[in-house]
Amino acid sequence: MKPSESSSAQPVNRLATRAQPGYYPDFSTLDQQDSWDEATRKVIASRVASPPPIRFFAPDEAALLQAVIDRLLPQDDRFPENRVPILPVIDERLYKNALNGYRYEDMPPDRDAYHLGLRAIDQMAQERFHLPFLELSTLPQELILKSLHDGAPDPPVAVWKHMPVHRFWTLIFEDCVTAYYSHPWAWDEIGFGGPAYPRGYMRLENGLPEPWETEEVRYIWTAPPDTLSDLDLAAQTRSPNSSLLEGIR
Amino acid sequence: MPLFGSFKAPANGDHRLGPMQRIETPMRRFPAGETVDYLVVGVGSAGGVLLQRLARAGFKVLGLEAGPFWDTERDWVSDETGSHELYWNDLRIIGGKDPLALGANNSGKGVGGGSVHWAAFTPRFHPSDFRVYTEDGVGADWPISYWDLKPYYELLEREIPVAGPAWFPWGDPHGHPYGPHPLGGVGDVLVRGCTKLGIRTVAGGPVAILSASHGDRPHCIYRGFCLQGCKVGAKASTLITHVPDALAHGAEIRAHSMAFRIVLRPDGRVDGVLYYDREGKEHFQRARAIIVAGYAIETPRLLLNSACPGHTRGLANSSGTLGRFIMAQAGNVVAGRFSDLIRMYKAPPAHALSEHFYETDPRRGFARGFAIQTVAPLPVSFAKHMMVAAHAWGWGMRRVMMDYNHWATLGVLGEILPWEDNRVQIAGEKDQYGIPVAKVTFNLHDNDKKLIEFGKQKVMDVLWAAGAETVVQEPRFAHLVGAARMGSSPDSSVVDKFGRTHDIDNLFICDGSILPTQGSANPGLTIQALAARTADYLIEQGDAIFSSGRRELQEPRIRYDLSPPFTHFKGNPRIA
Asked: Are B7 and A249 within 8 A, CB to CB?
């Protein structure tokens, strides 16, 4: 089906703050929890109601990591009470030393990697802008993090000679997206139906919503105009005619 | 209203496997000091089938499983991060030029092993997969042919059972016992794009997911959480297909038991296994024969860690090939954004595919081929995917994820050849038990790189042809096999064609690690078929396994009478 274009499609004011961003107004996976199984309901309810306390990071390190997270996965478009907790989830993983089943041979253990990486980020802020990362405004913070994203730390402080920057980026950013997109508020934002046992789904084809899901209502969504982290996918992808493989089956 | 009654916590001692199956608790426990006939290390895809067959045949069998014995109602959730414990999360070190991500990607822990979180695609290997060296001059030949395994493919397709088209046109054409599933949004994209390019497809299977109820297992409800453990009991895992029958016939499964050393008797035969229980207490379990079924990393790790005088390079490693020739399949994930909605979280991630490019085509400039399959990741996996494929971060990640419902993802499943330098070794570090961990080294070679490049481009073409407005891709790997390969020669392989180690007469390996090559088919069905065949061999050999060094190499008689309940009266259709 075609997504319905909102008839009043116009740029919303820059970064309108909402309880629920995204194109599925009023969709709430949590409203569906009566049709979830008990084990799932418990896990999700505790995720929403009781983010774990900070036990691994020291207060100053936690504050620094929070500032990094705020740029890695910004939530300025959410009211403060509607922001998804990310730092507590990362802290808990490291506090429990919960692993993901592997470590690259050129990487230190996850806990050490976080300590080292955060220290490096702060050093980069000091060297380049003569301020702690925490005290920088958004743009210089993004400049530093974008250099990590691009795999070319600027300035190249010593830590990155010993720890591959792209692996650290993967580690910290995977942890961020895992925390964010595990949260039912993020599911509401992206229109993901969420847990579906025992009820299941019945409209499998054509992107149709279940009776309890909502239609997409699109509007022109804009990131803050001066951000370095927005994405223009159309500019990234090649045209479909460039395949060298025509004719070979 | 809930479909299956109210969802209250099960009563104490009521162990549930899916909404309908119950197993009796407390489960059997052999007395301390008792010698069992077969000790199976690892209760996954192969271990579950082995235990079930051997128990039915009257052997005293015990399965040691490092992870928990899941109660699916209590332990499993419809949630990505809540399912983290299904994976082998313990420390492993990865290296090489193309390191293999492990954990959730390919490694299971707990009864059922990887079959708990597989997508359950169940294509057979093609006849050519068993003769790769003969046909293409690369890789290795198997010591058996497709035709030796075919009856076991058919049998397992009825046992687990497999849903799919009545006519599957590639390899040895065949049909599937249960009807195909309805098509989801991503499957529709695959069919649409391939059709435009003249590529043949099938949809609705083959998958080991029920399209109609089967005994005490309900059919699929299309909730999309296949990889998080199927609470419905529609997706096959040995936890629900073979383990209950094994228990009913006297097998014991000892969960939370981490094997760390195989011990030899003075006469050079294996004596038993040392393992740690949940509290870290050490135990010794004696057995008349041992089958290691720990998959492609834990199996070589256990054997390497069992090095002893006379076997200083590890058990069953006189050839020096133990740990070598580990393989993963190319698993590039290709994502396309469509202006229409897809909602890819509905329906099983695995439900449509093409094996059009499976066989070698010399015009492509590389040996072997690949399959194209639906993937359909849930939000967390998709975000990780977009991080690599689209280089998304910050607001860009928020933006691309707001369009989650507009994306469809397909996967390359490509054959990577077995290479000697791709291997499992023992690292210097230790895990939480104090056991030295595995180090896995992986490098792509020239043929692999060419194949991946071609496959990736072809799948991108499919998405463009289906009408995508943006296409991005992430290089990945899928599955793990090899590292203890079977072969005819003790000089170049670890086990013979029935999984018996060349070096030690009562030590067997039966899991994905014995595969000499891997084709472009998901390995789960083949692993289970090999396990059923090894079980038939052991049963036919009887007590001779426990004392004799004689190696019978005739194919065993197939024991159709040892299948789990509800198998009989099912057929393998064949149209045309």
From this structure: no
